[in-house]
């Protein structure tokens, strides 16, 4: 009975047959997924471009081109208020996906008139378009900042790109030439100013095969048209190519005293100098500062003037005058002008830079003990430029060198210019002290007396001649007649001599005119003597201009 009341158990198992009805939705799902994937694959990438304004850009019309082939079209234009720029969205073809390297470039092609010529005239009818220049980077990106102007050179052009930075140089523009021995080998691709470092940054492109001219020892400087320099070395005139004369450019080269060095790689950084002379000074970067206090006028002494030892340059003038927060008492006492000079170790001796600064300071102190002094010399009478000359005509200085603003002070002495002025003034003072008027008056008086004496002698000769013609005298002894004849000859000779210096003779007139000219010259020289007494350097410089006085320090 119990078995009859038990319920049967259900048997659970897998359904052996699947209904074909389920295949229909599964197939539809697969087809739909494939269509979505194929549509996505055929659409291509979408890029976001940023530019300052949307001039010439139209949604659905402006195309994106590579090598004049359409690869996409602008799909949207939005305003980015936060960044004050325009955000452009463009859909590209699927084949353009590999062109979106991180260093790819985009810019708007439209009619332009600039220094390089006229371009983009074909867009007057077809409208502006966006040009894509593929990059070389292995990294990919979908966001780019568009260029405001077309690049100077394409990234596909073989060559070398360099980075330059410089302070206090002439500002150059994109497109300016890069020159090697006045031959154009490249262009300036980028120019911007770094306000944090206060310097100009440039990017250059050097075409191949000229890129091998750039080595580690190369120097770059601004070749700005015509350079005219008036300094202690004379007049220097440097000119470049016609294009650099009109707009400027960048020149480079290797100093003759240095080896070429190894070739550089892409994106190597260099320093840009203001001119070629400044670039050559780089090999003398190690230098010792000194102060020279001159008591004479420093007009004509400019920063950059040479410091020479018997015609060989060993340093450079740094500042005239050397301003400090508080002038010391010794400069106030003798009214000296402090001048900062640099002794450049590379110019002192071969291999001088191998020694320490302390070693060379001891050498300079030893030279001071042997009589080394600094003097101002006139380097050019036309320009009035001065330079500092190192001489050994001074007194021996056994005590340690004094300091000014924590910089050692080298002894100074009056230069050749001051010595010449002192000698000229002394000579003119002696001429001015001569009593020429009294001499001239006495000379005139003597000439007048000589004229009267000559007249008396002529009368005596005539009387003696008349006496000799008398018959009584003819009968005198021969010896007495001979004596009278000799006396007559002597008186005639004396009379002729006195006639030469009489008031009617040519010699008297010449002597009188010479004395008159001398008196006139002395009268004209007197204002010059008075001016030189007041201002000794007026003999060589314009006395209508006042000497520049250094500004005094402000009291704390």
From TrEMBL:
Residues 44-135, 171-221, 296-392 form the Mce/MlaD domain. InterPro entries: Mce/MlaD, PqiA-PqiB_transport. The keyword Electron transport does not apply. The chain crosses the membrane at residues 20-37. One of its GO terms (cellular component) is plasma membrane. Keywords: Cell inner membrane, Cell membrane, Membrane, Transmembrane, Transmembrane helix. It is found in: Cell inner membrane. Pfam families: MlaD. It comes from the Bacteria. The keyword Membrane applies. PANTHER family: INTERMEMBRANE TRANSPORT PROTEIN PQIB (PTHR30462:SF2), INTERMEMBRANE TRANSPORT PROTEIN PQIB-RELATED (PTHR30462). This is Mammalian cell entry protein. It comes from Iodobacter fluviatilis.
């Amino acid at each position: 009975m119990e078995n009859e009341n038990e319920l049967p158990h259900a048997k659970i198992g897998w359904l052996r047959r699947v209904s074909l009805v389920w295949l229909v939705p599964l197939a539809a799902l697969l087809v739909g997924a494939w269509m979505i994937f194929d549509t996505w694959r055929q659409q291509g990438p979408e890029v976001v471009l940023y530019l300052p304004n949307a001039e010439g850009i139209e949604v659905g019309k402006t195309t994106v081109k590579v090598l004049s082939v359409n690869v996409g079209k602008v799909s949207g234009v939005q305003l980015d208020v936060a960044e004050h720029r325009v955000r452009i969205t463009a859909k590209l073809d699927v084949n353009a996906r590999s062109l979106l390297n991180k260093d790819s470039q985009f810019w708007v092609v439209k009619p332009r008139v600039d220094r390089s010529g006229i371009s983009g005239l074909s867009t007057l009818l077809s409208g502006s378009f966006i040009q894509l220049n593929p990059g070389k980077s292995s990294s990919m990106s979908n966001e780019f900042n568009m260029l405001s102007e077309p690049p100077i050179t394409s990234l596909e052009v073989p060559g070398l790109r360099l980075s330059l930075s410089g302070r206090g140089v002439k500002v150059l523009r994109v497109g300016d030439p890069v020159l090697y021995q006045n031959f154009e080998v490249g262009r300036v691709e980028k120019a911007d100013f770094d306000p944090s470092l206060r310097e100009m940054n440039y990017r250059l492109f050097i075409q191949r095969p000229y890129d091998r001219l750039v080595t580690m020892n190369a120097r770059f400087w601004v070749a700005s048209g015509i350079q005219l320099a008036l300094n202690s070395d004379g007049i220097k005139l440097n000119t470049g190519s016609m294009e650099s004369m009109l707009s400027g450019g960048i020149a480079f080269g290797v100093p003759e005293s240095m080896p070429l060095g190894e070739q550089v790689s892409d994106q190597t950084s260099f320093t840009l100098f203001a001119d070629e002379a400044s670039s050559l000074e780089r090999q003398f970067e190690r230098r010792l500062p000194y102060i020279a206090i001159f008591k004479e006028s420093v007009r004509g002494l400019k920063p950059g003037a040479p410091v020479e030892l018997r015609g060989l340059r060993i340093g450079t003038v740094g500042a005239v005058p050397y301003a400090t927060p508080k002038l010391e008492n010794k400069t106030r006492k003798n009214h000296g002008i402090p001048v900062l000079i640099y002794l450049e170790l590379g110019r002192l001796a071969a291999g001088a830079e191998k020694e320490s600064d302390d070693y060379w300071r001891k050498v300079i102190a030893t030279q001071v003990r042997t009589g080394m002094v600094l003097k101002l010399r006139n380097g050019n009478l036309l320009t009035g430029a001065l330079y500092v000359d190192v001489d050994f005509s001074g007194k021996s200085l056994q005590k340690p060198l004094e300091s000014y603003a924590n910089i050692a002070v080298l002894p100074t002495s009056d230069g050749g210019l001051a010595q010449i002025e002192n000698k000229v003034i002394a000579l003119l003072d002696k001429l001015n002290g001569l009593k020429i008027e009294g001499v001239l008056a006495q000379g005139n008086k003597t000439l007048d007396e000589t004229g009267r004496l000559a007249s008396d002698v002529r009368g005596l000769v005539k009387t003696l001649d008349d006496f000799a013609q008398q018959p009584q005298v003819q009968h005198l002894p021969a010896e007495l007649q001979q004596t009278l004849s000799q006396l007559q000859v002597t008186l005639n000779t004396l009379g002729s001599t006195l006639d030469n210096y009489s008031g009617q003779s040519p010699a008297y007139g010449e002597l009188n005119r010479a004395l008159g000219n001398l008196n006139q010259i002395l009268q004209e020289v007197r204002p010059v003597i008075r001016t030189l007494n007041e201002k000794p350097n007026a003999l060589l410089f314009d006395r209508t201009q006042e000497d520049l006085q250094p500004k005094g320090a402000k009291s704390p």
